[in-house]
């Protein structure tokens, strides 16, 4: 590998490092069944990923209960539904997710070249840790920031700023790698470069329409 272009690379998780949608859909449908609701489709779940698992559950409940999302969010029964879902997701974690091609060896090579690596995901911490662990990535990152680690989540740049400060790296030496408009907006808000994968979850839109600095076919392009 030629000398790295970046000293710090921040990775999105769902749809960038790990294909998580199949088991998220299983967990959502397990929870809906417990709650006496009809199931949702894989395609719907794919399009609801991005704003964190809590928001995804709100969308699923709104859809199946024919209610506006805000009504679900403020329903006193929502906390119970969230607890049911948490149990379902914890059981499904690692059952039907998989690393995208060449993720493991690329992370290893970047680390060996001295690049600092972090995860910045909107997925809540209680699910982030098991997903990383299920794929042997628990110790692959210098920092992991989940959707509920800080008071705000992506596209707020706070998580990126936090990493820049922690590692003492400049914005021009930092790259964000993601799969969605939220990741592109996060990088733009933080003033760092952004490369995007075309295979993830971008709310049904092609990632090119979000105008990242580059679209790369897979993670191994970071080594080129
Ligand atoms: O959990 C989500 O909805 C999105 O997670 P991500 O930020 O890792 O894509
Ligand atoms: Mg993503």
From TrEMBL:
Chain sites annotated for binding Mg(2+): 12, 14, 179
Keyword annotations from UniProtKB, A to Z: Carbohydrate metabolism, Hydrolase, Magnesium, Metal-binding
InterPro entries referenced in this protein's UniProt entry, alphabetically: HAD-like_hydrolase_sf, HAD-like_sf, HAD-SF_hydro_IA, HAD_2, HAD_sf, PGP-like_dom2, PGPase_prok
Pfam families cross-referenced by the UniProt entry: HAD_2
Reaction(s) this enzyme catalyzes, per UniProt: 2-phosphoglycolate + H2O = glycolate + phosphate
Catalytic center residues: 12 (nucleophile)
EC number: 3.1.3.18
Family membership: Belongs to the HAD-like hydrolase superfamily. CbbY/CbbZ/Gph/YieH family.
Protein name: Phosphoglycolate phosphatase
Organism: Hydrogenophaga electricum
Taxonomic lineage: Bacteria, Pseudomonadati, Pseudomonadota, Betaproteobacteria, Burkholderiales
UniProt gene name: gph
